[in-house]
Amino acid sequence: HPRPAFQRLKIKIKAEIVTLGLGRPLEHRRQKLKLPTSEEDATVISDSKESIRQNMVEDANIDSTQPRGQILEQTSTLTDRHLQNQKANPLKTKGQYLTPSQWDEACRNPNVVVIDTRNTYEVEIGTFESALDPKTETFAEFPKYLETLANEYDWSLYGKRMDDDGKTLDNDNERTSTDDEEREEEDGDNRREKKKKAPPEAIAMFCTGGIRCEKATSFALQSKFFPEDLPIYHLEGGILAYLDHVAKRNEANVEAASQRESHGNHTAQQDESNASTNSTFKGECFVFDKRVALTEGLKPSKSYVSCYGCRGPMDRRLLLQDGEDDKIISNPATADNPSTKMYRGIPNLPPLRYDTQTKKYYLPGLTCPRCHSSTTRESLERFSQRANQMEICAREGKPHFRDGKNEEKKEI
Predict the structure, then answer these.
(1) pLDDT more than 90, % of the chain
(2) Cα 47 to chain center, whole Å?
(3) Strand, helix or coil at 73?
(4) Among all residues, which ones are annotated catalytic?
(5) Alpha carbon distance 54, 33 (integer Å)
């Protein structure tokens, strides 16, 4: 049988999928290299540096012909990266789980800071109503965001009761004069500094399926950015578990309401109780597969498609041929836009469009308003070739990618 025209197989083996940008883990080398598990154990390296150096040279593919100083520098770098990685190791420590049924209470508590650990393109299409958006492009940027966030609060007030004006209260619910004087003195010394906020009672994090927020809470607990006794929670199972729970909860509520009506026991108080169980998640949840995004009950999105360029979520309306909101520029190479010079000479380009909602350009089927301005000419050429291949496959009724091995099994 002829081989599939567009067969592709990519396999990557990684020591860790989510690294948080803190360094590469070396768990598979720990016993052989005698790597420390924490900063306190780092003396192991200096005590037996020569034997570890020899093992690292052999196991980490370090060129042994290099000067000794360069070898020591490389082995030390590997160890430092390993120690940094351990600061976000969920096996060592992580936040407390909140089940989907407990999560809404945390979201509705004004004294709990809820943080979305996902990236901007994910947050844009859906998040919890009270969540903070870190505005990160990659998960590696999250540690820096967490440090910046921690510096926005006055942690010296943590554990103290506050009034509406941000003043501490004593046991009799009165303002404490000593605290007032100290705060006034501090304010006088730091007039030019931005006034810090009263600290929260807890922090709650979430992500798509629960992996990133486990890493994030582990880092938050070990980073020393926050008080040691500050409760740090994360949503068990992530947004996906929550959306599944909400759908089942709604079905149960509908069934219970139907039974009450049939027995004549329907009350306004029960309506109010049902209203309090409404979902705190607004929008849709982006997922990294062909479904693109999911709604309650884990139903595939009808509003978003995957951008062929950045693979992020793109509003389906942008694929419409005659979108009323878009300005169509028939020939990108001649458009009145300095960036369009890069289009010249690339075959089979679709008409350039200008999305009036985002005020950005995009090429339908190749780029989206989010990624278009950062797309290189080389990438555009590759996207154009891929789009052409997909059109040929569609005309011939073939899938774009096939696993030839599975096809042979089916035929046998």
Answers:
(1) 37
(2) 40
(3) helix
(4) 207
(5) 9
Mean pLDDT (the chain) is 76
Helices 142-150 and 211-222, packing angle to 10 deg: 50
Q: Tell me: the pLDDT tens digits for 46-101?
A: 444 455 455 555 555 555 566 656 655 655 666 666 667 778 888 889 999 999 98
CB-side neighbour CA atoms (13 Å) of 238: 19
Return the C-alpha torsion angle 293, 298, 302, 304, nearest 10. Answer: 0
| 170-173-175 Cα angle (round to 5) | 60
> In which element (H, E) is residue 355 found?
strand 352-355
d(CA 139, CA 117): 8
Backbone angles phi, psi at 142, to 5 degrees: -65, -40
CA distance 17 to 279: 30
Burial level of 273, CB count in 10 A (0-12/13-18/19+)? exposed
Burial class (CB in 10 A: 0-12, 13-18, 19+), 351: middle
pTM over 0.85: no
E strand or H helix at 409: helix 404-411
Q: How far, in Å, CA of 176 to CA of 161, rounded?
A: 11
For residues 329 and 127, give the distance between their C-alpha atoms in angstroms, rounded to a whole number.
Answer: 34
Two tokens, residue 33: 């290299």
Span between the terminal Cα atoms of the chain, in Å: 12
- Give the mean pLDDT of 316-336: 59
User: For the chain, how big is the Rg over CA atoms in Å?
Assistant: 28
Cα 242 → chain centroid: 16
- Using one digit for the tens of pLDDT, what is the confidence trace for 201-259? 999 999 999 999 999 999 999 999 999 999 999 999 999 999 999 999 999 888 888 88
